[in-house]
Amino acid sequence: GNTQIKGAIGFISDDSSVGDYGRGNLIFCVDSVDDNAPVGHADEKMRITHAGKIGMGISTPDTNLHVWKASAGSVSAASDAQLVVENNGVTAINLLSPATSHGQIIFGDPDDNDVGQFGYDHSTNKMYFKVNGSATKVLETISTGTTFKSTGNAYTMYLNTDDNAISDTAKIIFNDRGAVGWNGSSVYLSDDGSNK
Fold it and tell me: How many degrees, rounded to 5, is the angle at CA 65 between CA 15 and CA 90?
């Protein structure tokens, strides 16, 4: 059969140079059509601009890395962002982990490279948050409710949970006055913070 060039790396001027030497962008083109035509500029899939920005699916990336599937509308990336993922519908970043492990987003600084994090424990099916470099999960969410914890688990509030660790009584208090709670045998409402 006929042989055509179906992939290419090229340089394209962006007419932004004010001198005599020129500058531009590096483009990566791949032809996705099974036909008797060679790859062309219209087949561009990725670009590295002269400013060092990388665009995947977009020729004018907003920031360091811009992954584009479709336009979200008249919006540009926030100035603090180094990563942009854009689509005209549901937009997602998918973290895939083994069923016995965790998926995590970790926050760090020069004093602690994992000072904060949130993640999903696939072995227990819990979403959790950690802060200030502590191993304590200050918030856990499971399919039946949410658990808020202080450091060392000294104070815990369970919301709609069937966790076996729940105490005999539980209470949610509003402004030290009204409350809703469980007294060990029934749910109660209170207008003064007491168990009624």
Answer: 115
Q: Is 118 helix (H, G, I), strand (E, B) or coil?
A: strand
Closest by Cα among 38, 64, 48, 53 to 11: 48
Per-residue pLDDT tens for 36-53?
Answer: 899 998 999 999 999 999
d(CA 115, CA 176): 32
> How far apart (Å, rounded) are the C-alpha atoms in residues 151 and 171?
19
What token pair was written down for 116? Answer: 């904060």
What residues have CB less than 8 Å from 63, skipping those under 6 apart? 53, 77, 81, 82, 83, 84
Residues pairing with 117 in the sheet = 106, 130
Please, which residues have CB within 8 angstroms of residue 151's CB and are 6 or more apart in sequence? 134, 136, 138
Q: Are 157 and 172 contacting, i.e. CB atoms less than 8 angstroms apart?
A: yes
